[in-house]
Structure formats: structure tokens, C-alpha cells
Specification:
The chain is of the alpha/beta class. It is built from 14 helices and ten strands. The chain has helices spanning about 30-40, 60-70, 70-75, 80-90, 90-100, 105-125, 140-155, 205-230, 235-240, 250-260, 265-280, 310-325, 340-345, 350-355; strands at about 1-5, 10, 30, 80, 130-135, 160-170, 175-185, 190-200, 290-295, 300-305. Strands 4, 6, 7, 8, 9 and 10 form a six-stranded mixed β-sheet that branches. It has a two-stranded parallel ribbon with strand order 1-5. The longest helix is centred in the middle third of the chain and has 22 residues, at about 205-230. The structure holds iron/sulfur cluster.
């Protein structure tokens, strides 16, 4: 399978606990999004958090920002990763600190994530070779995603096993992007999504973490099913991602496309082809969702869990999280009964929510942004 080249930046979100491994950790941020984020963080007023000192960070900036800009606008984001919503599920405020203070991930946590990513990569290499394709534009990056999808559709149609399948689509007004770890068919012929989670310690995660993992695979199902059912459209993709369909693709991408028997010139050509292939592929919706927990050091399987897909619950949770991104409410920290999460949080020393005992109190009393 093709992977985008070195110009992209790995997306590693501080998740608040170290035993996390996720296909999206090897998924890459688009060039322009990465640049835009860097710009936003250097703008006066957009990030005045002083960093990790002994004082709680004032969240006044967030309050001021809420008056005029939604977090989507303030962070210059066109879309979110599934990982963003999952870290929100763990602690929303921690996710926001991770965006405000990129690079604050503790070295030991980064090392664990790296190990997890390496295990994912090794699993992928069991199924196919990886080809690195140099890219220079966001359109190139999306073209690589699309070429990967085109190469995997026939395998899925012939009931084969694939890894790292890109998914995307609009959910509750927000465009979400993710990567499904693995898809295969069970002995009963059902299409199963399998998500591998590697663990630093040889024990199963706590229920709060499993809840977050269940939410993640449920989101993947929503995105995948919508894609194969023709509910994701090129217009929606173009609207949210602001990609330029007529921009010519880079020579390396075009060469890779030709080698795979795909004759296109621009992202627009490729988008049409991919959406047509998805809708005509007759691929089924995902039948079962499975989580597999594996010990990093020994590769021993610690346990598996079949996840019940609760559509209404997923939808209402997404609506709640999206309300933050749209700027309709302030970010929230953990509930009192989950205060144990703060003990292993990278932002515990600077967290205003923790300092104030579970509220963004004065000068940051919760304030609802007027709907536009
Ligand atoms: S200290 Fe607690 S409330 Fe604050 S960001 Fe971390 S986990 Fe969330």
C-alpha cells in the first residue's frame, strides 16, 4: 500500500493514558493544516497559555475566542480526526490542551505510542509492501488515500483481509477522517472490523478506556457504512476539505496511479473514480466490531471484546462533542468520579478545571455561544 512521504507530520494526540495504539497515529496531517495550526499558535491572542509551569493556565483566551470564533475556526481546522473525538471522550479539556500545547506529550508516552505504531506497521507489512510516495500538496495526500482505497476494494470484494482502510464523511455537521485498522470476513461470512490496541502492561484496560475504544470503532462503522452506501458525496468532501479538484497531481502520485492501472490527471478525476467504485462495489456494511488488546512486549493477546453498536448513543455523543467544536459551549474536564484520570494527565499541573474542583469558574464561567 502507498504511504504519503516525509513532508507530512505525524499526528499524535495526547490521550491521557499511555497504553494507546491507534492506526491514526500513523495517519498524517495535511501540509496546509499543519502550517495553519502553527500559524494559529503563534498569533497574539490565539495561544497565550504560558506552558508547563507551576501555575494553572488561564483559560481566558478560550473564553475570548468563544465570543468570536469556534474552535474549528480558531484552530484553522477543516475537519477532525476520529482520534480527536475519542480523546474528547476521555477528557475534553485534555484534548484541548493537547491542541493548544502541541509537543507536550511526555517522552515515555511518546515512546509507548511509537511502539504501538511500529506493531501496527509490522501487521500491515504482513499483508502487503509499503511504497513511499513523495507528496507536495494536500491534493496529493488525498490522492494517496484514494489510491489505497481503490487498491483495497477488490480484495474486500473477494472476501480478503485488508489493513489501514481510510474512512471519511460528514457526521452531525462535522467532516471526520479516520483509518480502520483491519477489515476481514468471519467464518460466517460477516464483515468484521478489528481494532488492535497494544498495551504497555499485560493487563486489560479499565472500563473508561474500553468505552473510548468502543466509541472509536463505532465511529469507524458509521463512516465506512456511509461510504459504501453512497451517502458520502464528492460535493461534501470538497465543501469540507476545501481541496482543489482541478489542481494537477504530483508526478510521483501520477506514476503510482499509472502503475496501479489508474489513469487520472487531477484529484477531481480520482475523486469521481473512487466514489463510483465505492458505490458500485456492492460491499456490505460492517457487521461486527472487535477490539483486540495485545501486550507490546510479548505480543500475547490479553483479551478481545465484541462491541455492541449503539447508533443512538453514538449519535448523541457526537452531537455533544461537536457542540464544543462549533463553539456552542466551553470545553469540559472530567467528572468528579473520574478525577483519577487527572493523576496521569500531562496537563494536571496547569489545568484550571482541576484547580477549581471540576468547573471552569471565574473568570471563565461557562458561557454559551450564540448560534449563528
Ligand atoms: S487534569 Fe483532569 S480535567 Fe484537567 S485536562 Fe487533565 S484529565 Fe482533564
Amino acid at each position: 500500500m502507498a504511504e504519503a512521504g516525509e513532508e507530512e507530520t505525524a499526528s499524535v494526540e495526547a490521550s491521557g493514558f499511555s497504553d494507546l495504539s491507534d492506526s491514526e497515529l500513523v495517519e498524517c496531517l495535511d501540509l496546509e493544516d499543519a502550517k495553519a495550526s502553527a500559524v494559529s499558535l503563534s498569533k497574539p491572542g490565539s495561544s497565550e497559555l504560558p506552558g508547563k509551569d507551576d501555575k494553572p493556565v488561564s483559560l481566558q483566551t478560550w473564553k475570548e475566542g468563544l465570543d468570536v470564533l469556534s474552535p474549528m475556526e480558531r484552530f484553522h481546522l477543516n475537519y477532525l480526526y476520529v482520534t480527536d473525538l475519542c480523546t474528547q471522550n476521555w477528557c475534553e479539556l485534555q484534548m484541548v490542551y493537547g491542541k493548544e500545547l502541541p509537543g507536550s506529550l511526555a517522552p515515555e508516552k511518546a515512546a509507548v505510542l511509537d511502539t504501538g505504531a511500529s506493531i501496527h506497521l509490522a501487521k500491515e507489512l504482513e499483508l502487503h509492501d509499503l511504497v513511499t510516495i513523495p507528496i507536495t500538496t494536500r491534493e496529493d495526500a488525498w490522492a494517496v488515500k484514494f489510491l489505497n482505497i481503490l487498491s483495497m476494494i477488490p480484495t474486500l470484494q473477494s472476501e480478503g483481509r485488508i489493513r489501514e482502510f481510510p474512512v471519511f464523511g460528514e457526521v452531525e455537521g462535522i467532516f471526520l477522517v479516520g483509518v480502520i485498522d483491519e477489515l476481514h470476513y468471519t467464518a460466517k461470512g460477516e464483515l468484521e472490523l478489528a481494532e488492535l490496541k497494544t498495551r504497555r502492561r499485560p493487563v486489560l484496560p479499565l472500563s473508561a478506556q474500553r468505552k473510548k475504544d468502543c466509541f472509536q470503532v463505532s465511529l469507524y462503522k458509521c463512516l465506512f457504512d456511509a461510504m459504501v452506501q453512497g451517502k458520502v458525496t464528492p460535493a461534501s468532501l470538497a465543501h469540507h476539505t476545501k481541496l482543489c479538484p482541478d489542481r494537477p497531481l504530483g508526478p510521483a502520485v501520477l506514476r503510482h496511479a499509472r502503475q496501479g492501472g489508474v489513469s487520472v490527471k487531477s484529484l477531481g478525476d480520482l475523486t469521481e473514480l473512487v466514489f463510483l467504485s465505492l458505490t458500485l462495489s456492492d460491499l456490505p456494511a460492517i457487521d461486527t466490531l472487535k477490539l483486540e488488546y495485545v501486550h507490546q512486549e510479548t505480543a500475547a493477546v490479553l483479551g478481545t471484546e465484541i462491541v455492541a453498536f449503539e447508533e443512538k448513543e453514538v449519535k448523541s455523543r457526537v452531537q455533544h462533542y461537536v457542540a464544543y467544536w462549533m463553539g456552542h459551549r466551553d470545553p469540559q474536564g472530567v467528572d468528579v468520579e473520574e478525577a483519577w484520570k487527572c493523576r496521569s494527565c500531562d496537563y494536571g499541573d496547569i489545568c484550571a478545571w482541576r484547580r477549581d474542583g471540576g468547573a471552569l469558574s471565574s473568570p471563565l464561567e461557562p458561557k454559551t455561544k450564540k448560534l449563528k
